[in-house]
Structure formats: C-alpha cells, structure tokens
Design a protein that fits this description.
The complex is a heterodimer of chains A (266) and B (90).
Chain A lengths: L2 E3 L9 H10 L1 E7 L10 H20 L4 E6 L9 H10 L9 E8 L5 H16 L3 E5 L6 H14 L8 E4 L6 H6 L3 E5 L8 H11 L4 E4 L11 H11 L4 H16 L8
Parallel strand pairs in A: 1-2, 2-3, 3-4, 4-5, 5-6, 6-7, 7-8
Helix pairs in contact in A: 2-3, 3-4, 4-5, 7-8
Chain B lengths: L2 H28 L6 H11 L8 H9 L26
Helix pairs in contact in B: 2-3
C-alpha cells in the first residue's frame, strides 16, 4: 500500500517515525504550521519555525524517501494577540515561493473568539490575494460545531475563495455534512482519544461517500499515532472494501486536492 | 457488511467501552463533592444511545456542543473541556 499523510507535525516526532511511515508506504507528507505548545514571543520565532519547515524538515524526510510539503500561518491558538498575528502574516510572503510550500494553513478557530475570527479573515485575504490553497483547522470538542459554522461563513463572505481549493480538517459526524455541502474538502483526523477513531472514519466514508475526503494522523506532541492512516486502511479492508476505494481515500484524494498547487509533485 | 459481520467485528470492542462507561459513572457516584456541568451533559448524551436510526454519534456530539453563533469576546484559555458550560460561563 502507498499513501500520502496529508497532515503531520513532524517537527515534534522522532526520526523513528519517519522510518515507520516510509516502511508502511508513505510517499509524501504535509506539515501545517501549528502551535508549539507554548506561545512564541515574536514574529522572529515564527521566521525560524518557517525556516525549519521549508529547509530542515524536507531534508529529514528525504532521508527516508518521503517528500515533505508544508503550509504556513500563525495558528489560531496564538491569534488572540492581534499585533503578533499581523507581524507573522507580514513574514509569510517571504516563504511562499519555497519549493515545498502548498499554501496557507492550518488556519481557523480555536475558542471562536472575535480576534480569532479577525485573524482568520486576515489569513483568508492573504491566501486569496496570493492565489494559495487553504488548509483549515476546526476547533476541538465543544467548540467544533460552532467554529465550523463561523469558518464556513468567513469563507463564504470572501467572493475570491473557490470552495474546492479549501480543505476543512478535523471533521466529525456533526460537521462533515455542512463542509461537503459548502463545496469544500473534508479531512478526518485519526486520534486515539479525541477527534475520530478508525471505525468512525470508515463509517463516514460509507455514509457520505469517498469524494472530497481524506484521512490524516496529524501526529504531533500529544497522544497521536503516525501510522493511523495505514492502520485505518487495514481496518477498511477487514470490512470488505476493495483496494481501489482504499487507494482513493489514502492516496488519490490527497493527491487530487494537493495537486491543485503546482509545487505538489510526487 | 451484514449486521452479523458488524457484530462479529465490533461487538467485543463496543462491549468493553460500554462497561468502561458504566464503571466511570459508578466511580463518579462513589466520589464525594459536587459535579460540574460535564456530568449533566454526559447523562444527556447517554440518553441518545437509545435513539432510533443511524445518527446517534452526531446526536451525542451535539449534546456536548456550544449551540450559540456569536464569537465570544475574548479567548480566556486555549483548551476545551469536552462539554459546553453554558452561556456566560466561558
């Protein structure tokens, strides 16, 4: 089996995880900018992080034959500080032409605050004005349903945004329908404790079809399993699904969405 | 999959999780002190398991979800606790 891991925070993983991903058939992975577990003090901290994502991490992945791509933004968890957000957004264009940059992400909301919404609008404007793909993070737990509705409103309110060029990640049963109905792509994140289990992810493929959907492990510094995608593929096979459908979810679909960026070449 | 195949593949796992839920509620009952809003939400969500049809997962998620539409004035923290505490409790 070969697969694309479309959302993985590899800066927080060990080299062993790259080896395991390659062994399981991972040919490419995509690393969105995210919150480091603590608030960075200035835009210079982000500049260093963006260099890590565009210079260092691709080399680490290449050692295992995996192509590394990335997304840039200030994560919604750090969006309450509007001045910092503005400074970071001013830095992002410096990196937009790097060969592994796919677009703006993972932007979105965390606690659904007014400043988070403003910073989301700023990111959407940045993406639209530079013709970039967008990867959206939807909030956790009790905040997800409301946050997803707010995010869809922000996207709808910007007439430059083409829905098929936006991936809304971390969908669950109560948000997947509204995301697909709006014409966007939806990502299911396979976490051991929150978000989505392998069984539920397959349920959603069975109920909503396989168009405009992908799975990701989002593996980061919290409880998460880098091999969640291939393991879910195995479970899908145990349910009797054929290899063509599995391949569509774990390889063809990510390739189709990400391929809208000319830089995504396998 | 047939219903029989679903049971063959998932019954033991679901049984295990159901007993864990029961034990969790027993543990909460044995403990001293007051519970917060999360326990009430949890009990409401458990009721959804008796619903008919095939939207129970969505119904459970909605019980725990913030039903309001206006952005909150300021994010006081970064984490989520799993259940909506109610208007004005942010």
């Amino acid at each position: 089996m070969k697969f694309i891991e479309p959302h993985a925070h590899m800066v927080s993983r060990t080299t062993d995880d790259y080896a395991d991903l390659a062994t399981a058939g991972c040919v490419a992975l995509c690393e969105p900018a995210f919150w480091a577990g603590f608030d960075r003090g200035s835009a210079e901290g982000f500049r260093d992080y963006f260099r890590q994502l565009t210079e260092y991490e691709p080399k680490r992945a290449a050692n295992y034959g995996i192509k590394h791509f990335t997304w840039l933004c200030i994560n919604p968890k750090e969006s309450e500080d509007m001045a910092l957000a503005a400074d970071v957004l001013a830095v992002i264009p410096e990196f937009m032409d790097c060969p592994n940059v796919l677009g703006i992400g993972e932007i979105g909301l965390n606690k659904n605050s007014r400043n988070e919404v403003k910073v989301l609008e700023m990111h959407v404007d940045l993406a639209a004005s530079h013709d970039q793909l967008i990867l959206v993070h939807t909030p956790h737990l009790e905040d997800k349903h409301k946050g997803t509705r707010l995010i869809l409103d922000v996207l709808k309110n910007d007439s430059r945004i083409q829905p098929e060029r936006v991936m809304i990640d971390h969908v669950e049963e109560h948000t997947i329908g509204m995301v697909l109905d709006a014409g966007h792509w939806g990502g299911m994140t396979l976490y051991p404790e929150s978000k989505c289990s392998p069984a539920r992810a397959i349920d959603m493929i069975e109920r909503f079809g396989s168009e405009r959907l992908w799975w990701d492990a989002a593996c980061d510094w919290g409880p998460s399993v880098p091999l969640a995608v291939p393991r879910t593929a195995v479970e899908m096979r145990k349910r009797g699904h054929d290899d063509d459908l599995i391949d569509k979810v774990i390889y063809e679909n990510p390739q189709q969405f990400l391929g809208q960026c000319d830089r995504f070449k396998l | 999959m047939t219903r029989q195949q679903v049971l063959d593949q998932y019954f033991m796992d679901a049984r295990h999780k159901l007993i864990d839920l029961a034990a969790f509620l027993d543990r909460v009952e044995r403990a001293d002190g007051d519970a917060d809003f999360r326990l009430e939400a949890f009990r409401e969500a458990v009721k959804k398991l008796e619903d008919k049809g095939h939207d129970r997962a969505e119904a459970v998620l909605m019980v725990f979800s913030d039903p309001t539409m206006e952005p909150i004035p300021v994010a006081q923290g970064k984490g989520a606790c799993g259940a909506w505490p109610g208007e004005g409790a942010e």
